[in-house]
Design a protein that fits this description.
heterotrimer, A alpha/beta, B alpha/beta, C mainly alpha, A: alpha/beta, Rossmann fold, 4-stranded antiparallel beta sheet, 11 helices, 38% helix, 22% strand, globular, B: alpha/beta, 7-stranded mixed beta sheet, 45% helix
Chain lengths: 281, 391, 607
């Protein structure tokens, strides 16, 4: 099993507060690993550091065996890492199609020649001139975008030219994932993809993620909905207060006393309604 | 307003004007002093709004007074003289549009303005090519009249003014002067001319500070000036900014005498500078106390009409209308004839010049009169020849 | 050495005066998250009300101050109620532009009522002065300092320790949450504007008395300096505003000491840029926190652009080209030529501010760079216009991008202030670099336009040339917008964090956007220079930048056809209504306000 993502001794402090403390984490190719824990445990902060939006104070992040903790988000995206955001960040005034096409930005070769120095000017010139190679690539991408949107049934496809801000919340989250897929990522970071969704929407999303996993996409998932986590994950990491308190296959983690204490609570998740005592604890 | 109307208007109305004009001529004897018939129109391009709006307002007062006089005496060639004032805000974009408007309106026989050289010069080529005289009566930029033979100005040339200012400073007994000047094309050109002339009069320019038109605070500038140890401070300013500087010179405790260019001459200078104005020397082209008959008559009429004291801008505007009325009266309303008339006319009565005659080469008037003045007890009075005691 | 003390004292004195403005601005920014460009106008109104009270009612100073305080509080509440409250929930740029519109309207009203002539404001303060070093300070300096410090202190206490103060701070943090907690948010905003405006008005009165000079045009500089002081102190930070003002005063003073008076404003704006780049939170602002994640993070109004069919566009273009054949009226052609040149500026602005979302308040500087580049190439090196104009476009492209590059890390309001400052800096450099630009004297004798040896000066020929350039630029820009590059620029506008996470390098694309828009603006400035055959530092001023912004909003931000329509409307209409010339700026202001309120997406919709 090749290690796609490896995190060693990652730490991040904000002022006097340690958001992440000496975290070790591994994701192998093809795995779906979940990151769970109470709010403020450091999960999104970890994502930000992996995707380059934030710099760790200590530690290393290796992606496909290359250190990336000092790289910019653009550079990391170019290496095949795509992410979604906790509250959803679609390009609001752009159409559904445009959003997806932008996901593929790093893959464009004819449109964005990577020549040193003159590359940017060449890109500008190509946008004005539009030779055949550029047109072909753009057409190919549009076809691809339609395919990706097809994964969501008829949720997004009929709304191809609608502006993203006009979509329902669930559709916006789906669009975010479509955009991430357009990048053809080696690894996908999903930050609470089912947040704010009702059970039906959640089930749909869960099925989609399962499909992606089946297609071989490596996924690191932050989730609060434990059914989703338990059913999808190969392994689970539990964070609390910035530190890892447990790791392992879902069943192991579920029964870990420290995890129960910090996060799961004493009731059997989803099985019964919480008893009055459990609520009072 | 149809833009096509211009052409047809031309064809139909010219003969009509001629007819009316003849009638007017015929009846002018009967109607004695009154002008009648189709008015002769001067186009004015100037600031009515914007940063320089106050000067446009001063122009209007001068124009209106002059027109009353001209029209009471029978107008020009028996027809009333009038102006149409287009607000350019002294913005070059607007002056060029206004220029096109004027040149294509056959009623406009001559153009006045604009206020700043920046604005006027942008439109010069339009006036020149169309053959309409652009009379920039406040444009003193040395290159203004070089725009062509239709570009004229009676604005006092700084090449005359500044040496006179330098001479006054020398006559007052000063040796070391610090110059504060408005950093516009007018101010900069003037400052250059002053510095050159100063050498000739044995003055040493020990400091030279240019300031922006909207500057309010001069304290630190004055420290620089003070440190240069001048005998006198020379101001190349307009009345508003001149007043600000003067006031602050006294407020910070500098007793250094002040000699200002004639452009500060205005009752507003004293109003704005308050007590600080007392003791300021200036060589002005225009002084209401001047005993010359043209000046007295202008000042009396201005006071009677507006109940206030006239300033330089009012005087120049008044002069300009009187001048143009004389040219039109003598040489006619044809645009080219007016240009030729400007070159030929001699000794037009003028508040500023006494008698105005143009130099056809430079298209400017030389020989502006100036009087040495000083402010005493809140009034401008003639300098009595006494040199100020050394500070 | 004693001079150093004098410069220091003077710096503190002028800083004192800036503080009166900065405190009010800081208060409003702190609460409404808004740079109030109308603050200077309230300052001016305060000065005039005070003048009127003294002249007609002969009130003693304390009573005058009270009258001004109350009157300006009311004006402030009016501004909030009429100009800003209706914009709650609209695009974030709306209140910013509304305050600009308001400043136009208020300044013009003052000018119409009181005439543009400066007036004296007599003061009944005792005449004593205190000598310090080689200079002195007087009773008015003490009074101004007193008002500044006391009001800042009172505000500080009010915000920290009173119930209403808590409400104010809560509203500033999170308006909806405060509302949920029972805070009457509207009353809070009203109160804040009232206090800030009252302070601003009293400031205007005191400063007017100090200089014995008030005029309707004093608001712009006042606002500008107040904004600079605020940024230095920490935007939204009231005590910080005082320190920022004093520091600004000192820097200006030392700048004058070292280099001379004409460098004063240059120092002020360079200081501003330095702070924006390295200390964006000012001296006292807190450290910046991680950005919150917006759902609709855009600065512009969301809308669908009006679909104008292809044939209609071609028809319009055809009519435009055919017009000079139908009527040779030079006035109409000149006006439209002005419109085409303005359209080039509007196109460049709509790309950078509309499409790429980088609000620019200094676009006129690009015109100046282009104009001077072409003029100097033609006059100093003898290059023919057919060479110098495109070259000027390229120079503007490069130089413009270089100048604004350091500001790329800024967002929202800050980039607006930065571009405003850069615009002023360009103007001041042109004024002071006399060996290159001839300074205030300007460059004369710029050769007229010519093509292959034939001079182009008839109204028709010039019209066609300018129209051709506009159409070409518009076509290029449309092509750009429809490409992936255009898409990328819009992503940049929508959400920088998401954009970066998908490989879009911010600096790269901002630079390219500025480079492209610099070309068009540079060519416009260059053509203008050859048309006017004379230019100086006043030819392209900052008011043009704001006018261009109005055009772009009128047309719809990002909308190519909209930019042209906006330019024609705002250049052409005032010419038609020349009779209302005195009200021109007033009408612009009202138009801007109405647009922002009722149709922020402009006539043709944003793209």
């Amino acid at each position: 099993m090749t290690r796609l993502l490896e995190i060693r001794g990652l730490s991040r402090r904000f002022g006097g507060v340690s958001a992440v403390k000496a975290l070790d984490l591994v994701v192998d190719k093809g795995e779906l690993v979940s990151l769970i824990g109470p709010n403020g445990a450091g999960k999104t902060t970890t994502f930000n550091m992996i995707s380059g939006l934030d710099r760790p104070d200590e530690g290393e992040i290796l992606f496909a065996a290359e250190p990336i903790q000092r790289l910019s988000p653009e550079a990391i995206a170019a290496r095949g890492l795509a992410r979604t955001f906790q509250h959803g960040r679609v390009f609001a005034n752009l159409s559904v199609e445009d959003n997806v096409l932008l996901g593929a930005h790093t893959r464009l070769r004819a449109v964005r020649p990577g020549w040193p120095l003159v590359g940017p000017l060449a890109e500008l010139a190509l946008a004005l001139v539009r030779p055949q190679a550029v047109k072909t690539e753009e057409e190919a991408l549009k076809a691809e975008a339609r395919e990706i949107l097809g994964l969501f049934g008829d949720r997004l496809t009929p709304r191809l030219d609608h502006a993203a801000y006009s979509l329902s919340y669930a559709n916006r989250r789906r669009l975010e994932i479509a955009r991430a897929l357009a990048l053809k990522p080696q690894m996908l970071l999903l930050d609470e993809p089912t947040a704010g969704m009702n059970p039906t929407e959640t089930a749909e999303m869960q099925a989609l993620i399962a499909t992606l996993k089946a297609q071989g996409v490596t996924i690191l998932l932050i989730e609060h909905k434990l059914e989703v986590v338990m059913q999808l994950s190969d392994r689970v990491y539990v964070l609390d207060d910035g530190a890892k308190i447990a790791e392992g296959p879902p069943e192991t983690v579920r029964n870990d006393p420290a995890v129960i204490e910090a996060y799961l609570g004493h009731s059997n998740v989803g099985a019964t309604t919480p008893s009055a005592e459990a609520v009072a604890t | 307003m149809s833009f096509n109307a211009g052409f047809q208007f031309n064809r139909l109305v010219r003969p009509a004007i001629l007819a009316i004009g003849l009638c007017a001529l015929g009846s002018s004897a009967a109607l004695a002093q009154a002008a009648s018939g189709e008015p002769v129109t001067i186009g004015v391009s100037g600031p009515l709004t914007g940063q320089n709006a106050q000067y446009g307002a001063q122009w209007k007062k001068g124009f209106d007074l002059a027109l009353e006089e001209v029209n009471a005496k029978g107008g020009v060639k028996g027809r009333p003289l009038q102006y149409v004032f287009e607000d350019s805000q002294a913005d070059p974009r607007q002056t060029v549009a206004i220029a096109q408007k004027f040149v294509s309106d056959p009623k406009i026989v001559v153009e006045l303005g604009d206020f700043s050289s920046t604005a006027s010069m942008a439109a010069s080529s339009i006036y020149q090519r169309a053959g309409l005289v652009q009379f920039g009566f406040t444009n003193s930029h040395p290159n203004f009249t070089k725009g062509g033979d239709f570009i004229w100005s009676n604005s006092v040339s700084q090449a005359d003014e500044q040496p006179r200012l330098a001479k006054y400073a020398a006559d007052l007994g000063f040796k070391r002067v610090a110059v504060l000047y408005l950093n516009t094309d007018w101010g900069r050109a003037s400052q250059n001319l002053f510095s050159e002339a100063a050498k000739g009069y044995g003055l040493d320019v020990v400091a030279s500070e240019g300031y922006q038109p909207d500057e309010k605070d001069f304290r630190s500038t004055l420290v620089r000036v003070r440190d240069a140890k001048p005998d006198a401070i020379v101001l190349i300013s307009y009345y508003a900014d001149g007043a600000l500087v003067t006031r602050q010179i006294r407020t910070v405790g500098l007793a250094t005498p002040i000699v200002a260019s004639g452009s500060i001459y205005s009752p507003k200078f004293i109003e704005l500078a308050g007590d600080a104005a007392n003791g300021v020397f200036t060589a002005s082209n225009f002084f209401p106390g001047d005993s010359r008959p043209e000046v007295k008559s202008f000042v009396d009429k201005f006071r009677a009409k507006y109940n206030e004291e006239p300033d330089d801008f009012n005087a120049v505007a008044y002069d300009t209308i009187i001048l143009l009325a004389a040219v039109i009266n003598q040489y006619g309303t044809d645009r080219t004839a007016i240009r030729d008339g400007l070159a030929q006319i001699k000794d037009v009565p003028s508040v500023i010049y006494g008698k105005a005659t143009f130099d056809p080469q430079t298209r400017r008037v030389a020989g502006a009169r100036a009087v040495y003045l000083v402010v005493k007890n809140g009034q401008f009075v003639l300098w009595d020849g006494k040199k100020p005691s050394a500070t | 050495m004693s001079s150093f003390i004098d410069y220091t004292v003077n710096g503190l004195v002028i800083g004192n005066i800036y503080a009166l403005l900065a405190v009010g601005l800081a208060l409003i920014f702190g609460v409404a998250n808004l740079i109030n460009f109308a603050h200077g106008s309230v300052y001016t109104i305060g000065a005039y009300i005070g003048w009127a009270a003294i002249t007609f009612l002969h009130t003693p100073l304390p009573v005058t101050m009270l009258i001004v305080f109350v009157a300006c509080a009311l004006v402030g509440m009016l501004i909030e109620r009429v100009g800003l409250r209706p914009l709650q929930g609209k695009a974030r740029i709306a209140p910013l532009l509304a305050t600009i519109g308001l400043s136009f309207v208020l300044d013009q009203v003052v000018q119409l009522v009181f005439s543009p002539d400066p007036r004296a404001v007599p003061s009944d303060l005792p005449d004593w002065r205190l000598t310090i070093g080689g200079g002195s300070i007087g009773a008015m300096d003490i009074l101004i300092a007193g008002v500044g410090i006391v009001s800042a202190a009172l505000l500080y206490v009010f915000l920290r320790f009173t119930k209403l103060g808590f409400a104010v701070r809560a509203t500033a943090q999170d308006r909806e949450a405060a509302q949920q907690m029972g805070v009457n948010v509207n009353a809070v905003n009203s109160a804040v504007f009232a206090i800030a405006s009252a302070l601003g008005g009293v400031g205007g009165l005191l400063v007017g008395m100090y200089y014995n000079h008030i005029d309707p045009a004093m608001s712009f500089q006042a606002t500008l300096k107040g904004v600079v002081a605020q940024v230095i102190g920490g935007v939204g930070n009231v005590p910080g505003a005082i320190f920022g003002s004093l520091l600004l005063g000192l820097v200006e003073s030392y700048g004058i000491a070292l280099f001379g008076t004409t460098y004063r404003n240059l120092f002020a704006f360079v200081l501003l840029i330095i702070f924006l780049l390295w200390l964006p939170n000012g001296l006292f602002g807190g450290r910046s926190t991680v950005h919150t994640e917006p759902l609709v993070g855009s600065f512009i109004a969301p809308s669908r652009p009006l679909r104008v069919p292809r044939w209609a566009i071609w028809a319009l273009a055809l009519i435009a080209f055919a017009l000079p054949l139908a009527t040779g009226a030079p006035y109409l052609l000149q006006t439209l030529t002005n419109a085409w040149l303005a359209a080039l500026l509007a196109l460049s602005l709509t790309l950078i501010s509309g499409t790429a979302g980088q609000i620019s308040f200094g676009q006129a500087a690009l015109l100046a760079i282009g104009g001077y580049a072409s003029a100097l190439l033609a006059v100093d090196l003898g290059a023919p216009p057919i060479v110098s104009i495109p070259a000027a476009g390229l120079i503007t492209s490069a130089l413009g991008t270089l100048l604004v590059f350091p500001a790329f890390r800024l967002r929202g309001h800050y980039i607006a202030i930065a571009t405003l400052a850069i615009g002023e800096i360009v103007s001041l450099v042109i004024l002071n670099w006399e060996s290159l630009t001839r300074g205030a004297m300007g460059i004369t004798g710029i050769p007229p336009l010519s093509l292959f040896g034939h001079e182009i000066y008839s109204a028709r020929a010039v019209y066609w040339l300018c129209l051709a350039v506009v159409v070409a630029m518009a076509l290029l820009q449309s092509r750009l917008l429809n490409s992936h590059f255009g898409r990328t620029l819009r992503a940049l506008r929508e959400d920088e964090i998401a954009a970066r996470s998908y490989g879009i390098g911010l600096d790269r694309y901002k630079a390219l956007a500025f480079a492209f828009c610099g070309f068009g603006a540079g060519v416009s400035g260059a053509i203008t220079a050859h048309l006017y055959s004379y230019l100086n530092d006043q030819t392209f001023n900052s008011q043009l930048s704001l006018l261009a912004l109005t055009m772009v909003i009128l047309g719809g931000m990002g909308n190519v056809l909209g930019a042209i329509v906006g330019a024609v409307a705002l250049v052409g209409l005032p010419e038609i209504f020349r009779v209302a010339a005195e009200y021109r700026i007033l009408i612009y202001g009202v138009a801007l306000l109405l647009l922002i309120r009722f149709r922020p997406q402009g006539l043709l919709g944003t793209v």
